[in-house]
Amino acid sequence: MQILRKLLFPFSILYGIIVWFRNKFFDWEILTSASYDFPVITVGNLSMGGTGKSPMIEYLIGLLHHNYPIATLSRGYKRKTKGFLLLDLASDAKDVGDEPLQFKNKFPEVLVAVDEDRQNGIKNLRALEQPPEIILLDDAFQHRKVTAGFSILLTAYGDLYSKDMILPAGNLRETACGAHRAQVIIVTKCHLDISKEEKRKIKASLAIKSHQKLFFTGIHYENYFTNGVQQIPLQLMENFSLVTGIAKPQPLVKHLRDNRLDFKHFAYPDHHLFTEKELQELRSLSLIVTTEKDFMRLKEHLPHEKLFYLPIKTVFLEDQEVFDKEVMSFVAQA
């Protein structure tokens, strides 16, 4: 791997120069960006994925939707459609993407839309008869044609952007200096017992600016599997197959191993679109556990009674009230 990175490093330099100039063109207003007189919050990362954007969007929905009409806007990664689409509960993952469908299923009262052109998506959401007062942009940190009023940048514990390189030698979409655009930086997927000293070292590594706030979060796994109708306690699930199509399934695999569960793992690429041959192979399995995101893509193709997922959510290790106050203050002042 190190040899490959060295071979690809010259291409990373070229790509980095291109991205740097693109960002500078937006900073110098050579390229134009739209800003808005209502709250727009973006959640994103510098890396290619696996930082926990979906649980963070869900956390923000839970924080805001009881008090404000809100909407989420995503690209709808790997969907087979184009343009603006407003989701309903009958939407199919292949048409709208798995993560937006997950948001809609979990929060049916919230507006959920997809559009690869975020400006166009925002325009269409605000043109609705009952428009949202707040829009959450999912994975739009590099979408510089929209200037969000509040940017939340995620980086995964053990895979910090400050210790990575830009594509293709590394996994970064842009250099680490792009982090300065965020008001909040969150280190996700932390061990729940992370020490103060380790937090201090991470803060120093990320070179947090004076205008930024740093938070640490972990993953809370529920103690049951569900298919939306039935729940099975964690320890009662036996002899199942784990099917994942996410960027970094290792924390989930470790959690299940730590709970001494017996399973075989079938790992696919992130947002994998299952072929009919693969679905036939999965149908031959007696019991399947997957992630909630993968469940959205598989539920239309596999028997309901044999497909389950393990719910997760983001938990702040400390200063949750401070984070909530930061978000609510922005919303109130925007």
From TrEMBL:
Catalyzed reaction equations: a lipid A disaccharide + ATP = a lipid IVA + ADP + H(+)
Pfam family, one: LpxK
EC number: 2.7.1.130
GO molecular function, one term: ATP binding
GO biological process: lipid A biosynthetic process; lipopolysaccharide core region biosynthetic process
Cited InterPro entries: LpxK, P-loop_NTPase
Involved pathway(s): Glycolipid biosynthesis; lipid IV(A) biosynthesis; lipid IV(A) from (3R)-3-hydroxytetradecanoyl-[acyl-carrier-protein] and UDP-N-acetyl-alpha-D-glucosamine: step 6/6
Keywords (A to Z) from UniProt: ATP-binding, Kinase, Lipid A biosynthesis, Lipid biosynthesis, Lipid metabolism, Nucleotide-binding, Transferase
Function according to Swiss-Prot or TrEMBL: Transfers the gamma-phosphate of ATP to the 4'-position of a tetraacyldisaccharide 1-phosphate intermediate (termed DS-1-P) to form tetraacyldisaccharide 1,4'-bis-phosphate (lipid IVA).
Protein name: Tetraacyldisaccharide 4'-kinase
Native species: Mesonia algae
Gene name in the database record: lpxK
